[in-house]
Structure formats: C-alpha cells, structure tokens
Amino acid sequence: MNNNTIQLHELMLSRGTFFCYAGPLSEDVLTSLSGVVKEQLTETDSTSPITNKVFSIFVEQAQNIIRYSGDRMDKSGVGSVSISASDDGFLIEAVNEIKDGSQERLEGILTDLKNMDAAELKAAYKQRLKSGPPEGSVGAGLGFIEVARRSSRFDFCFETHNNVTLFLYRGWVDTPR
Amino acid sequence: MKLPATARTPEVTFEDGSCSIKGECYPEDITEFSAPVMSSLEEGLTNAEHYKVEIELYYFNSSSAKFFYDFFEFLDEQAAGGCKVDVVWRYREDDDTMEEAGEEFEEDLENISFSLESMG
Questions:
Q1: CATH number of the domain that A161 lies in?
Q2: Residues B75, B48 contacting (CB under 8 angstroms)
Q3: N or C: which end of chain B has fewer CB within 10 A?
Q4: Residue A1 has pLDDT above 70, yes or no
Q5: For residue A163, is it within any domain?
Q6: Is A27 part of a structural domain of the chain?
Q7: In this structure, is residue A128 part of a structural domain?
Q8: What's the domain count of chain A?
Q9: Given this model, what pLDDT does residue A134 score?
Q10: Where are chain B's structural domains?
Q11: Residue pLDDT, tens place only, A105-120
C-alpha cells in the first residue's frame, strides 16, 4: 500500500500532473473543482488566453463524464480528469466508461473532427448551433467541437477489458515559444 | 432587475431599454439560467424602439453557446421588426477566444448593430 502511495506521488510529479480527480463527478463537484483548477492555472507562467483554453477543455471533458459516463452514481458520472504541464504546454485528459454500443458513434464523431481544419471546425460549430442538439444529447451537442477548437490537437482511444470499455480523451494546449 | 453573478453564471442587469451580461457563463443547468433572462429580455423589448445590450464575457462553455445564439437570434428578429438594437461585445485585449466568439455571433446577425470593443 505504501508502495502504491509513493508510486502515485512519483507518477504525478514526473508527468507534471498538477491536478487529478478520479471518482463520481457531478455539477456540484465540478463547481468546486473549477475553483481549484482556476487557482492552479493562475499560478502557472502562462497567459490567460492559454489558461482559458485549458480551463475550457477541462470543463467540456468533465461535463462529458457527468452526462455520459457509462458508470453512474445518482446524478454523477464516474471518471477521471487531470491536467498536466510541461515546457511545451498543457495536457488535459479524461477517462470514463462508455455506455454499451456507443463506441462506434463516438469514434465516428471524433474521427470526423480530427480531420477538420480550423475553418471546417468553425463551420461545424455554427451548423450545430443552428440545428440544435442531436438526439440523446443533454447539452448543446457542441462539447467535442469545442475541445477540437480550443486544443492545439486532441486524440482519443478505447480500451476494452472484462466487457468494460474505457474512453480515453486527451487535448493539448501548446504554449508559444 | 439584477441577477448577481454566481461561481458559474455572469451578472445580468436589466434596465429600462438595456441589458448587460458580465462575467463567466457555464451554469450547472443552462435552462435554469436562461429562462428568467429570456423572459426579462422579451419583457424589456415589448414596445421598445431602441434597445442596448452590453456583453462582457471572459468564458462561456459549449452549452451556454446555444443560449447566446438564441439570445442574439431573438434580438435580431426584434430588430427586423423595427426595434433599433445596438450590441456592444467587450473582450479583454489579449483574449482571442472571446474576440473570435463575438465575431462569429456577429456574422450571422443581419439587423443588429453589433460592435466589438477591446478593453485594453
């Protein structure tokens, strides 16, 4: 047990992970975490346009877990969100279980977004605003597009173990040199 | 009428012939936030000949984007109906995200006078 504690400590420090939350996420928890994350981001050397992008990706990823995580507790969705910093910028990561049968749909949406340039992302965003949320969406259906627009780049993958599929979702915000 | 700012919602002020929204917007429940704002806006625009809107945002999330879109669409319709609507969108000088957001809303509005102002 002591060993794990030290491993966790060393792992987080070695990868520059200054914020990590794992467990049930609700809107109330997000309100509290937002204060912490903002405080931590103002302590970094980065300018507010950069840290605002990091915060924006963090909120979209957290709300994605709250609303759509396949592992649920009351109003909460279970998952993890973390933010790491390096000389090159920030990495914002989220992991959560997905609902059965949603992998293909998510893969389709995210692959499309990954292949879009800035102008296409803007057009997709506006189109979504006009047409309203897709069926089954709790929010505006804009979260993934928002992450794609605010990040310097993003990636995602799915890992299935023992019939549970985890969705890994990462966004980077580069700092100008 | 004044809705004070909360941790996740902006301060919203309605006066005779004007409305101002200032702060950050990523509410827990967008409908809970937007319903009273939209009804006050509708009320304020009833029989108004001239209406002024001031927006000063530092951050809004994607769920709120839909609210702002509907907010401006409503104003644009009112402006088409004859009310003169002036919108001022203020952003912090170095805030490219909020500057761009203002520009994008402006692009789709046909009847409103929409100006972007950097706050320096």
A1: 3.30.565.10
A2: no
A3: C
A4: no
A5: yes
A6: yes
A7: no
A8: 1
A9: 81
A10: 12-18+27-93+100-118
A11: 999 999 999 999 999 9
The model's pTM: 0.96
Quote the tokens at residue B72: 């401006």
ipTM of the complex: 0.95
Please give the residue of chain A at the shortest CA–CA distance from B95: A49
What is the residue range of A86's domain?
Answer: 19-111+151-174
- Average pLDDT on B85-110 reads 97
Supply the pLDDT for residue A141: 80
From residue A44, how far is each of A37, A175, B79 by CA, in Å? 11, 11, 44
For residue A144, give the nearest of A166, A119, A169 by alpha carbon.
A169
3-state DSSP call for residue A4?
helix
pLDDT tens per residue across span A35-94:
999 999 999 999 999 999 999 999 999 999 999 999 999 989 999 999 999 999 999 999
Residue from the list A27, A56, A129 with its beta carbon closest to the beta carbon of B28: A27
Contact A133 B108 (CB under 8 A): no
User: Of the candidates B28, B59, B63, which has its C-beta nearest A31's C-beta?
Assistant: B28
**Side-chain-facing half-sphere of A53: CA atoms under 13 Å:** 25
> Residue A155 is encoded by which pair of tokens?
């990636």
